[in-house]
TrEMBL record:
GO cellular component, one term: cytosol
Family of this protein: Belongs to the P-Pant transferase superfamily. Gsp/Sfp/HetI/AcpT family.
Ranges where the 4'-phosphopantetheinyl transferase domain occurs: 102-158
Keyword annotations of the record: Transferase
Organism from which the protein derives: Actinomadura harenae
Coiled coil (UniProt feature): none
Protein name: 4'-phosphopantetheinyl transferase superfamily protein
GO MF annotations in UniProt: holo-[acyl-carrier-protein] synthase activity; magnesium ion binding
InterPro entries: 4-PPantetheinyl_Trfase_dom, 4-PPantetheinyl_Trfase_dom_sf, P-Pant_transferase_sf
Source species, domain of life: Bacteria
GO BP: lysine biosynthetic process via aminoadipic acid
Amino acid sequence: MHVWSVSLDVPVREVLLLRALLDPDELRRADGFDDPARRRRHTVAHGVTRRVLGSYLSVPPRCLRWTRGPHGKPAIAGRPDVSFSLSHSGDRALLGVAAGRSIGVDVEAEPAFDAGAFAARFFPAPERALVAAGQFTRLWSRKEACVKAAGGRLVQGLPLLVDGETVHDPSGALPGPWLVRDVPVPHGFGAAVALSGTQPCALTVH
């Protein structure tokens, strides 16, 4: 599996080049943001996704088309053999690509809210000490990566115990298990990638 860690703070020229790769729906969504920073981040994240996937599949980036699962998980139309996942938070994006297995990625900036109080309400008890030790974004990104790999909803991932290399859902609400890895990102962020199944798989970070 391959993961790209991408800065969304790029020169205007690069933003314009990436904007030219977007489809009409992506352009509408980008232009719907009143905040110029959010507009730029959306444009760069989705433009880079098209550029990377186009190179990976030897397809012109503008020609890529998406389908979506019941809870919005995107997939490449006509290529069920390749899975991808995109996440962005602040000025950082994460893009994961895998062949033959479903992938989910998540990147999270340090929260502005009280992480301890949130974990006390929603996280399983064994994880609360880890949150107190400053691991909230690590755990949160792991939960969301698993949910994205499964094509589920975030609320289904909150009860998962995600500190280990493999994660499963005892309730059976989410199809699993998953192989989960932390992804190195700049200070102030937490990031993770989840891959369906537990078979070992090399992780390449770009």
